[in-house]
Amino acid sequence: MSTWLLTGGAGYIGSHVLAALRAAGHDAVVLDDLSTGLTSRLPDDVELLRHDLLEPGLPDVLTDLTRRRDVDGVVHLAAKKSVPESVAVPLDYYEHNVGGTVAMLRAAATAGIGRFVYSSSAAVYGETSAEPVAEEHPTLPTSPYGETKLAGEWAVRRYAEAEGLVWTALRYFNVAGSASAALADRGATNLLPLVMRAVDTGRPVQVFGDDWPTPDGTCLRDYVHVEDLAEAHVAAAAALLEGRSPGALNVGRNEGTSVLEVIRAVEEARGRPVPYEIVARRPGDPARVVADASRIATVLGWRASRGIAAMAG
Ligand code: WQD
C-alpha cells in the first residue's frame, strides 16, 4: 500500500483516478481548490486539502501533511482544461497550469516527496504529421492550453533531472465515459456528452464538417474510457514505486473513431436516434488525432480494455 497526493482529485478525471488507486489498494489525499471540483465526487473517508496551488503557503501544507502521513508521491492533475478559454485568457492558463506545476514541484521537494505523475495531453503535439502519433513526434502545440501542458512537462522533466525525482507525463487523448452518473463530466463541451445531451433534449448536436479526408468525412479521434485512463495512473504509480522513471507516455487506444461512429454508438447504447446536423468545420480542428499507444503497453503493461460502446453507455 502506498499513499498519493492527488491534485484535482475532485474533478472528473481526478475522481476516477482516486477510485482506481483505492481499488488497487492504495490510499490518496486530495488537494483541490474546488473551483470546478465537487465534494460530491469524494468518498467520505478521503482527506481533502482545500487549497489553491498558487497559495504562498503550499509548501507548508505539504510539509504538514508529510508529518502526519507517509506520502509516496504526487499525481498532479489540477489544471485548467478548455482550449477556447485558453485562447481568450492565455495568462490564466500560464499562471495556473505552468505556475501551478512549478509550485507543486517546489512544494513536493520541500516536503521530501520524490515521485511525480503529471497529467498531460495530446494537445502537446498540435498538428500531427504522423498517424498514429508516437511520443517522439515533434511537439508543436497550437493552443495556449497545449503550450502550458508542454511547458509543464518540461518543468517536471528538468526538475526531475536536477533533483533525482522519478516521473511520468501521461498524454491523454480524448477522454470520455464515466464509472457512474455521480462521477460524470458536468457541463462538458466535448463530443460524447454533447451527443448524449442531444438524445435527452431532442436538440441536434452539430457535426463540425463531413468533408474531411477521412473514411466517412468526419474527424477521427482516439477516445479512451476514463476508467482505463485511471488505471493507467495506477500502473504509472506502480512503476514509480519500483524506482522507474518512464517519461512521457501516450494514453490512447491506437484507434480512430469518427464523429458519426460516436453518434452511432450512442444510438446503439440508448436505443434512440441522435438528432444531428452537419455544419461548417470548426477552425483549428485537425482531421485525425490517433495515438500510437505501444510505448505505454511496453513500459507499464497498460492497455485500454473498454471500447467506444462502453463510453457511450
Ligand atoms: C471531438 C470531435 C470535433 C463537438 C479537445 C482538446 C484536447 C482535449 C480534449 C483536454 C472533433 C467533433 C465536437 C461538437 C463535433 N482537452 N465535434 N461537434 O477538440 O478533439 O479535443 O478536448 O483536456 O486537448 O483539444 O475534443 O470533444 O471538442 O471534439 O462535431 O459539438 O468531435 O470536431 O472532431 P477535441 P472535442
TrEMBL record:
Q: Where is the NAD-dependent epimerase/dehydratase domain?
A: 4-252
Q: What is its EC number?
A: 5.1.3.2
Identify the enzyme class. isomerase
Similarity section? Belongs to the NAD(P)-dependent epimerase/dehydratase family.
* Cofactor annotation: NAD(+)
The protein's GO terms of the molecular function aspect are: UDP-glucose 4-epimerase activity
> In which pathway is this protein known to take part?
Carbohydrate metabolism; galactose metabolism
Gene symbol?
galE
Q: Which InterPro entries match?
A: Epimerase_deHydtase, NAD(P)-bd_dom_sf, UDP_G4E
Descriptive protein name:
UDP-glucose 4-epimerase
Give the catalysed reaction(s), semicolon-separated: UDP-alpha-D-glucose = UDP-alpha-D-galactose
Listed SUPFAM superfamilies = NAD(P)-binding Rossmann-fold domains (SSF51735)
Give the record's keywords alphabetically: Carbohydrate metabolism, Isomerase, NAD
Q: Which PANTHER family match?
A: UDP-ARABINOSE 4-EPIMERASE 1, UDP-GLUCOSE 4-EPIMERASE
Taxonomic superkingdom: Bacteria
The residue stretches assigned to a coiled coil in this entry are none
